[in-house]
Specification:
Blueprint (H helix, E strand, L loop, with lengths): L2 H29 L9 H4 L11 H14 L6 E2 L1 H17 L11 E6 L4 H9 L2 H6 L7 E8 L7 E8 L1
Parallel strand pairs: 1-3
Antiparallel strand pairs: 2-4, 3-4
Helix pairs in contact: 3-5
């Protein structure tokens, strides 16, 4: 069996497992009066308050889960890129003007107005252009940050940067 066939078979098994889990959660929700299993607190924590702390590890993990479904390798958390993302999102939150992707980076995703990373990620995933920006094959590292500005119309700002 070729490496390509092994990868395809592994992805097929992963997709089948995900369908089984999703079906199980749906059935459980229906039988328990509609209550769904909550997301990891790091993904559903609200960032629309001063001093909120983003669980960067869980945020990159959900991006990696999506990348796996698209046949792309995982990203590693990078503290230096977290710093870059934080500087960019602070600028974005204070000016309201989306920053430009710094030269040398593989890519950048921006968002504003979503209170949780789960909402932000869903927005990116559900927009074809944004979804493609999550999956460049040459990206191996990620940095992510959020900033809150209670006086702006959006409140919460997000920046995800990708690099090699």
């Amino acid at each position: 069996m070729t490496a390509h066939n092994q990868t395809a078979r592994s992805l097929s098994r992963l997709a089948a497992a995900a369908i089984v889990v999703a079906t199980g959660l749906t059935v459980a929700a229906c039988s328990s009066g509609g209550a769904m299993t909550p997301l990891h607190p790091g993904l559903s924590a609200r960032m629309d308050q001063p001093n909120a702390v983003l669980d960067r590890t869980q945020a990159v993990a959900i991006v990696n889960a999506y990348r796996t479904t698209q046949g792309v390798g995982p990203l590693s958390n990078d503290i230096g890129l977290d710093g870059t993302a934080q500087a960019l999102v602070n600028q974005y939150a204070s000016t309201g003007t989306p920053p430009k992707t710094p030269s040398g980076l593989v890519g950048m995703k921006l968002s504003a107005g979503y209170s949780t990373f789960a909402e932000t990620f869903s927005g990116w995933r559900n927009n074809p252009a944004d979804a493609a920006g999550l999956t460049p094959a040459n990206a191996t590292k990620a940095g992510i940050a959020t900033a809150y500005n209670g006086t702006s119309g959006y409140g919460v700002y997000w920046v995800l940067v990708l690099d090699q």
